[in-house]
Specification:
Helix content is about 40%, strand content about 30%. By secondary structure, the chain is of the alpha+beta class. The protein has a single domain, classed as Electron Transport, Fmn-binding Protein, Chain A (Pnp Oxidase, Chain A, Roll). The mean pLDDT is about 90.
Length: about 160
């Protein structure tokens, strides 16, 4: 798969950056800071991710439980509203492995998310192939970097559908 926004050289540079161990550390620190700001402001700040000077994408806080540890985690994620469902992307910036929250949701699919001040109870499921095919272009329209993330990884990036429960 190739990205329509990046040259092969740019994609290779991005692939190399995402393979560095320090990249995962930086991503975790940024996610913790995002969550802290979100919580300190009651969701007034941190409910969107800037993507340009005048543009941003919506974010939610996803609660999940470690599949083996049982530890509670919260992860900020970009989401797409699809009717009453919410769709999140297990991209991890195009890293070679799925993010931990993805495996945690597969193991423990009943959870909750917070959007601004609203807490919603949800059931997570992996999007079926046909469903993914229809959602993916909408996700690219929402956040074009997903196209780059898919182009730099060998895995097909999974989508999780969060249904109300």
């Amino acid at each position: 798969m190739t990205s329509t926004r990046r040259t092969p050289e740019q994609l290779e540079k991005r692939r190399q950056t995402m393979a560095k161990p320090s990249t995962a550390t930086v991503m975790k620190v940024m996610a913790r800071a995002h969550l802290r700001i979100f919580r300190l402001t009651g969701g007034r700040i941190g409910n969107s991710l800037p993507t340009g000077v005048l543009t941003s994408v919506p974010t939610l806080m996803l609660d999940h439980v470690g599949r083996t540890s049982g530890t509670a985690y919260t992860t900020p994620l970009v989401y797409l509203a699809d009717g009453q469902d919410l769709v999140v992307v297990a991209s991890q910036g195009g890293m070679a492995k799925d993010p931990q929250w993805y495996a945690n949701l597969v193991a423990h699919p009943d959870t909750q998310v917070q959007i601004r001040r609203e807490v919603r109870r949800v059931h997570a499921r992996v999007a079926a192939p046909a469903e993914r095919a229809s959602l993916w272009p909408r996700l690219i329209d929402l956040y074009a970097d997903y196209d780059t993330y898919q182009a730099i990884t060998e895995r097909e990036i999974p989508l999780m559908v969060l249904e109300p429960r």
